[in-house]
């Protein structure tokens, strides 16, 4: 299997622009992935194409996915011969389509409503500077919040079903502006897993785009133990390493050392001293090979208002509260952009 995606089954996306691509990465989890594909294919109210990229799952699983892909006229299954990780996989699957909005669904999740994708596409198309919309991630019961997927400051939990400006979005379910995605060059593939949404969001904010959480758009997440990186193994290493790289990208050595101290203390408390030290050492070596990002004063204020302020203790978080950038109520009636070349 070549490193570039090859069509395995279904219908490839049209060569002209349309409302949205719904993209799904596949790596094991056959039952959940089939449910995700069926949920994506059942979305209504927009011109969309479902694109699934399988990253080297077993042949039997690929055969099962191919059978499902052929059931729908707007589903394509592609395959690659290795696992490029989350950012690498998303870059490749997104490049296959031409939808003005890129809607990503984890392969162990389903949409909570049949018009979720259409409403997300309307909002991206109707707001020129909106880079990304994070969806609300529900637990398997379809009612309660999946706290394991909450990627925002804890103080924002009471607003989970509402709207707020943010500095990241949750990968399990979200929508991206293709114009922004392509302008920024997609995700940073070197991260492989964890923090890829935050890294992308920070570059988008620096370029003048906004990130929002829309709690009325939701997916249901069936948290699967299969193919998950265990916190006691590689996941903690990736988590620490990648966050330190991002800290260095934006704040240099001082930002790196500040974050390293935090994770070192956490690693000691969790009896993960050795993997923490390994992650810090690897991040320090890699950081020197990465270009530093420049941030405008406006971007720094945005990050402070919509992230840092919510993490400050006590009354300190009220600093700058009057200037908080709140998410604008989304459009509800405007249709997605016209389809066609």
Automatic annotation (TrEMBL):
SUPFAM superfamilies named among the record's database cross-references: Nucleotide-diphospho-sugar transferases (SSF53448)
Region of interest: Disordered: 322-341
Keywords: Glycosyltransferase, Transferase
Protein name: Glycosyl transferase, family 2
Biased composition (Pro residues): 332-341
Domain of life per record: Bacteria
A single MF term (Gene Ontology): glycosyltransferase activity
Domain Glycosyltransferase 2-like per the UniProt entry, residue ranges: 22-178
